[in-house]
Amino acid sequence: MTVTVRFAPSPTGHIHIGNARTALFNWLFALKHQGRFILRFDDTDAARSKQEYADQIQRDLHWLGIHPDVIAHQSARFDTYAAAVERLKGAGLLYQCWETAEELERRRRLRLSRKLPPVYGREALKLTDEQKAAYEAEGRRPHWRYLLPNFTDNPFETQRTEIVWDDVVRGPQTVDLSSMSDPVLVREDGTYPYTLPSVVDDIDLGISHVIRGDDHVANTGVQIALFRALDAEPPAFGHHNLLTTADGEGLSKRSGALSIRSLAEDGIEPMAVASLAVLIGTSESVTAVRSLEELAERFEPKATSKSASKFDPTELVALNKVLLHATPFADVDQRLHGFGITGPKAEPFWLAVRANIEKLADCASWWQIVTEGPRKVEFDEADGSFLRVAFDHLPSEPWDGMTWKIWTDRLKEQTGRKGKQLFMPLRLALTGLDRGPELADLLPIIGREETLARRPG
After folding, report:
1. Nearest Cα to 449, choosing from 389, 376, 397?
2. Of 242, 235, 194, residue with least CA distance to 215
3. Is 210 helix (H, G, I), strand (E, B) or coil?
4. Burial, 230: exposed, middle or buried (Cβ in 10 Å; 0-12, 13-18, 19+)?
5. Could you tell me where the beta strands, DSSP code E, fall in 87-161?
6. Does the domain spanning 1-73+193-324 belong to CATH 3.40.50.620?
7. pLDDT at residue 256, rounded to an integer
8. Residue 309 pairs with which residues in a beta bridge?
9. Which residue ranges are tagged as binding site for ATP?
10. How far apart are the first and last CA of the chain?
11. How many whole angstroms from its chain centre is CA 261?
12. What would be the CATH architecture of the domain defined by 381-453?
């Protein structure tokens, strides 16, 4: 059997780091098992689903390094869902219900007041044809519920009915169908909530493993029962813990918080996002991983904690720095062109500055310093006098990695300065900043002529 997984976002907003966690769990699982990855847009909500969001989700996945084998849209499959509905009706497993939301809420409160579980009591099964006709005459339209297999003969006498599965992430799991309401599979307007289209698609697309957030654990019992009602073998299920903000709040596509697009625009590297999104809340330490292939080797679903994990964006910046500091020039060459960093100086420049940047865009200011000159700095009389002597003793060309040492050793002998008194005025004169890349690396890139041009007046 070919392992086949799916990521099923609703295109109703921008995906965030929590959504990326689910996508990456599925992608890495497919990588580990040489499987297939399907991107399925759950876009049955025509009012809220937008093509612009679907397009952005695809761009976000590509940015992360995820390239789906198949892309499917639920909005193109309504005929398939309608056929499944007719099968279930024919088997007597769907029944009409006429209650309004207000009536259902009153019943729920009544059951709670009697210390009964707030599940639907299947009252609609007791309606006569005359009562149904009366509802229709009022202008009501029915919704359709799936009759859960949690009874023997009498649907009003439910009994404990366990759905058991070995969760890919959480291990053995059990859901009791008698504790649940019969789910609505078709709304009054003929549209479909999540449950039926998801199961039908998983069957038709050959999904072998469903890996998703643990807010779906209870749904899984219902879905497994529905797979069986449609004469299909359920896939394996896995439920990972969810991410929250640092304050413990849930993430939302509609709020735009920590969206993948915003993180990319902010200069965060894809593997910084992937490393944190996958490793946080697992037994693995959160470290910067250089590729998805390497991350797949470290990925072990069962190592995931069962409690929610708080996501701190500052950790992304720390991982970003580690990744950039170890990135070879060939991996950023084309991206540096976007900042005007080209030519023979580009590679030595990158090797000199990469250990001093948090984001790639930080290179731009250093390139300006190297090629156009430092920020203006005012020196006191003592440092000004020292610098005039220093620039008089610049070594002759050619310059290389030893030039800085030769120059500063010479100045120690000539001026008696050492340590910060020696190095800080030189750094300020050359770069205009009191910290930054090693001057031994920068000096050959600046060159002797440009260095002389930085001599204080």
Report:
1. 397
2. 242
3. strand
4. middle
5. 94-97, 143-146
6. yes
7. 57
8. 243
9. 253
10. 76
11. 10
12. Orthogonal Bundle (1.10)
b/e map 287-322, b = 16+ CB within 10 Å:
ebbeebeebbebbebeebeeebbebeeeebeebbbb
Compute how many other C-beta atoms are within 10 angstroms of the C-beta atom of residue 445.
21
Distances from the Cα of 282 to the Cα of 303, 304, 308, angstroms: 5, 4, 11
Name, in order, each residue with C-beta under 8 angstroms of 127's C-beta and a sequence gap of 6 or more. 96, 98
pLDDT per residue as tens digits for the range 354-395: 999 999 999 999 999 999 999 889 999 999 999 999 999 999
Instruction: Please give the Cα distance from 80 to 395 (Å, whole number).
Output: 79
Which tokens is 437 given? 């890349």
Structure tokens given for 110: 């009544």
Burial environment of residue 449 by CB neighbours within 10 A (0 to 12, 13 to 18, 19 or more): exposed
Residue 20 to residue 238: CA distance in whole angstroms = 16
78 backbone dihedrals φ, ψ, rounded to 5°: -60, -35
228: tokens are 């069986």
Q: Is the pLDDT of residue 114 over 80?
A: yes
Q: What is the DSSP letter of 299?
A: -
The 10 Å Cβ neighbour count of residue 21 is: 26
Which parts are annotated binding residues?
A: 253
Which CATH number applies to 80-164: 3.90.800.10, 1.10.150.120, 3.90.78.10, 2.30.29.30?
3.90.800.10
